[in-house]
């Protein structure tokens, strides 16, 4: 066990790695976990869904806002959401972590604990990775998933007449970000939604089994991510603010506290990792209808008109 004062350099790479993997229970999808040059996974479907994402300190998280445990949860959650968005279930994660050599080893262990908590929440495990010295915290996660013998749900399958539906919270992370940035110590649930998002695990499979024609997770913003579906499918999408009023109402108090427009968070706020999909008929239980698919061109409207605000996150802004 690392003491609070012991750094990564003092503990040593292999001692840290041994502590990170010690006592962890791997899920049934893992044939061989950490300890060799590579892990081995079962692929009963014959196909594996793969996605990779990165988090960089001060760009994607702040350690004065988030605990290392929160950061670990977020790193796994945002990658698992991409797997869910294909209609699959995340089974395993490979993690690379870079940090300054004077980082307390206890923080790295707390980060790993957060990752394992999130992975276990969906029945997955962490099967390997790497640990390196870096000028700041950088976390790279590769997620692997199982389709369960189904075809993937792509962005390109939406058709005119489809229903647009969402499952999970919308705008919560953006609200939390603004609360943290303005130093407002209220609305704890929204603040927590920013540091550790809560994807609706299992609903990607539910959507696929219910005939979803296209799907994505809300990582960049509802308008931005639906824009990817509209463009890939060559269709228009019209959202209804009446159907999204409940989401706006959840954020109203926080928006008033920071002097913001709650609609900007609902429509342009990212990092909630809710799932949004199109269906040829009524959406499955737990999903909420929020719009309709129309004939092209590929664009997203709000109540029949172009939205004049920010549609979402841009990686290089």
TrEMBL record:
Keywords, in A-Z order: ATP-binding, Kinase, Magnesium, Metal-binding, Nucleotide-binding, Thiamine biosynthesis, Transferase
InterPro entries from the UniProt entry: PurM-like_C_dom, PurM-like_C_sf, PurM-like_N, PurM-like_N_sf, ThiL-like
Chain positions recorded as substrate binding sites: 60, 271, 313
Domain PurM-like C-terminal per the UniProt entry, residue ranges: 159-242
Annotated binding of Mg(2+) 5, by residue: 220
Highest taxon listed in the record's lineage: Bacteria
One BP annotation, GO: thiamine biosynthetic process
Binding site for Mg(2+) 1: 52-53, 130
Record: residues binding ATP: 129-130, 155, 219
UniProt-annotated binding residues for Mg(2+) 2: 53, 82
Binding annotation for Mg(2+) 3: 37, 82, 217
EC numbers, comma separated: 2.7.4.16
Span of domain PurM-like N-terminal: 35-145
Pathway: Cofactor biosynthesis; thiamine diphosphate biosynthesis; thiamine diphosphate from thiamine phosphate: step 1/1
Reaction(s) catalysed by this chain's protein: thiamine phosphate + ATP = thiamine diphosphate + ADP
Residues holding Mg(2+) 4: 37, 51, 82
Record-level Gene Ontology MF annotations: ATP binding; magnesium ion binding; thiamine-phosphate kinase activity
Function: Catalyzes the ATP-dependent phosphorylation of thiamine-monophosphate (TMP) to form thiamine-pyrophosphate (TPP), the active form of vitamin B1.
Note: Reaction mechanism of ThiL seems to utilize a direct, inline transfer of the gamma-phosphate of ATP to TMP rather than a phosphorylated enzyme intermediate.
Family named by the database record: Belongs to the thiamine-monophosphate kinase family.
Name of this protein: Thiamine-monophosphate kinase
Species whose genome carries this gene: Mycolicibacterium novocastrense (Mycobacterium novocastrense)
Name of the encoding gene: thiL
């Amino acid at each position: 066990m690392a003491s609070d004062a012991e750094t990564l350099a003092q503990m040593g790479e292999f001692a840290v790695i041994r502590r990170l993997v010690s006592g962890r229970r791997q899920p049934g999808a893992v044939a061989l976990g950490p300890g060799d040059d590579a892990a081995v996974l079962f692929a009963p479907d014959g196909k594996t869904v793969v996605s990779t994402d990165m988090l960089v300190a001060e760009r994607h998280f702040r350690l004065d806002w988030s605990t290392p445990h929160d950061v670990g949860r977020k790193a796994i959650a945002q990658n698992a959401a991409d797997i869910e968005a294909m209609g699959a279930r995340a089974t395993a994660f490979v993690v690379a972590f870079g940090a300054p050599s004077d980082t307390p080893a206890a923080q790295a262990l707390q980060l790993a604990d957060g990752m394992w908590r999130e992975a276990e929440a969906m029945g997955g495990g962490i099967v390997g990775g790497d640990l390196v010295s870096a000028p700041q915290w950088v976390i790279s996660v590769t997620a692997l998933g199982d389709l369960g013998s189904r075809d993937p749900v792509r962005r390109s399958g939406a058709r005119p007449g489809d229903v647009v539906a969402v499952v999970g919270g919308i705008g919560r992370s953006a609200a939390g970000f603004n609360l943290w940035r303005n130093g407002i110590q209220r609305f704890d649930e929204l603040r927590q939604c920013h540091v550790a998002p809560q994807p609706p695990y299992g609903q990607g499979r539910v959507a696929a089994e219910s005939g979803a024609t296209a799907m994505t997770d809300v990582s960049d913003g509802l308008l931005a991510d639906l824009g990817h579906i509209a463009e890939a499918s060559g269709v228009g999408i019209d959202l209804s603010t009446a159907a999204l009023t409940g989401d706006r109402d959840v954020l109203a108090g926080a928006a008033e506290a920071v002097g913001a427009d709650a609609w900007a968070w609902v429509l342009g706020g990212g990092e909630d990792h809710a799932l949004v999909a199109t269906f040829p008929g009524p959406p499955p239980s737990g999903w909420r209808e929020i719009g309709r698919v129309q004939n092209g061109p590929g664009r997203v409207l709000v109540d029949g008109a172009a939205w004049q605000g920010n549609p979402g996150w841009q990686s290089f802004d």
